[in-house]
Amino acid sequence: MDDGCAGSAATGGRILAVDLGSRRIGLAVSDPLGLTAQGLPSLERGADAPGQVLAVRDQWEATTIVVGLPLNMNGSRGPAARAAEAFASELGQRSQVLVVLQDERLSTVTAERVLVECGVNRARRRTKGLVDRGAAAVILQSYLDRMRKA
Question: How many Å apart are CA 57 and CA 51, to the nearest integer?
Answer without folding.
Answer: 10
